[in-house]
Design brief:
This protein is 41% helix and 16% strand. It has 344 residues and is of the alpha/beta class. It has two domains: 11-248, Aspartate Aminotransferase, domain 2 (3-Layer(aba) Sandwich), CATH 3.40.640.10; 251-342, Aspartate Aminotransferase, domain 1, CATH 3.90.1150.10. Helix 1 crosses helix 11 and helix 13 (294-303) packs across helix 14. One of its GO terms (cellular component) is cytosol.
Length: 344
């Protein structure tokens, strides 16, 4: 069975497991874990920021970023299908009492002009004051699309002018960096906060970090404690993350190449896939246009030895390439997919 449901299916390599078992350890809650401290220093340098906090998940990193910057009743603006808006269990409303305003985007990208037209930057008796603009890069629901740097610069310029914070949900930030062939800080240096995840394409079993300006992150550790995210000998996980930063970023280009190969083979086999939409490691397949519902399509695919997941969009399936899936795997999966969906 070739499992392409998500890049969260990655497993630690032997080298990563060695890094985990040999990492120096201490009590992270009192800042005595040297591996966590080293990881946080690595991240501030890579992302052009001042401070970092290691956390269990990118969802927690996003929520802490919000709680550090958004007061109850204030507004967050972002693309309407952003992960933080749609897939974090209502965290902005439940935890911060925040209003979320979803903007229509193109490939996950919205514009500074949209923010200018939407934001309430002064106090009003009737409207929530806008505090934060949220960028998800890469954008999951749009198919792992990366924000072009010109679009990001436009948003930063607008938010600077309006006095709004920018938070980057960078669960797949390093995919964006590799796809655009720019260093990560080209994307993140102007943000106030950035969330990064280690358990997707970077291949770690768990772990994430919130990185940002030191003054903004001043309450982050207290909030992490409040949310139950404080850790003890967290160097076991931070060791995996440090290994990933050294060894697994450049190789994301292999995942992207495999996704393009996969999409091209599917299109050549007559399936409704557009390889031009593949920026990184996601491939979308519109099975509704084949007259199939997703459940039936997935059963056919499973019976032919390949696993896809549901995309956000009705009638669309998603495949994701990642560490542990070779070019041979995706070529085999493409042949199985074409056979499964084109044979009566």
């Amino acid at each position: 069975m070739i499992d392409l449901r998500s890049d969260v299916m990655t497993l630690p390599t032997e080298g990563m497991l060695r890094a985990m078992t040999t990492a120096p350890l201490g009590d992270e809650q009192v800042r005595e874990d040297p591996t966590v401290r080293a990881l946080e220093d690595d991240l501030t340098g890579m992302l052009g920021q001042e401070a970092a906090v290691f956390v269990p998940s990118a969802t927690m990193a996003n929520q802490i970023a919000m709680l550090c910057q958004v007061e109850r009743g204030q507004e967050i603006v972002g693309e309407r299908h952003s992960h933080m808006f749609r897939y974090e269990a209502g965290g902005p409303a439940f935890l911060a009492g925040a209003v979320v305003t979803g903007l229509p985007g193109t490939a996950g990208v919205f514009t500074g002009a949209q923010v200018r037209a939407t934001a309430q930057v002064g106090d009003s008796e009737h409207r929530p004051r806008t505090a934060l603009a949220l960028v998800e890069d890469t954008h999951n629901v749009s198919g792992g699309r990366a924000w072009p740097t010109a679009a990001l610069d436009d948003l930063y310029d607008t938010c600077d002018e309006l006095g709004l914070a920018v938070h980057i949900d960078g669960a797949r930030l390093f995919n964006a960096s590799v796809a655009l062939d720019v260093p990560p800080d080209r994307i993140t240096a102007r943000a106030r906060t950035v969330a990064v995840c280690f358990s997707k394409g970077l291949g770690c079993p768990a772990g994430a970090a919130l990185v940002g300006r030191a003054d903004v992150l001043a309450p982050a550790r207290r909030i992490r404690q409040m949310l139950g995210g404080s850790l003890r000998q967290a160097g076991v996980l931070a060791g995996a993350a440090r290994y990933a930063l050294r060894h697994n970023i450049a190789r994301l280009a292999d995942d992207h190449a495999n996704a393009r190969t996969f999409a091209t083979l599917l299109a050549e086999g007559g399936l409704p896939v557009d390889p031009a939409d593949v920026d990184t490691n996601f491939v979308f397949l519109d099975v509704a246009s084949l007259g199939l519902d997703r459940g039936a399509a997935q059963e056919r695919l499973r019976s032919h030895g390949v696993l896809w997941s549901n995309a956000h969009h009705p009638g669309v399936l998603r495949a994701v390439t990642f560490l542990g899936r070779s070019e041979e795997d995706v070529r085999t999966a493409a042949a199985r997919t074409v056979k499964a969906l084109t044979t009566a």
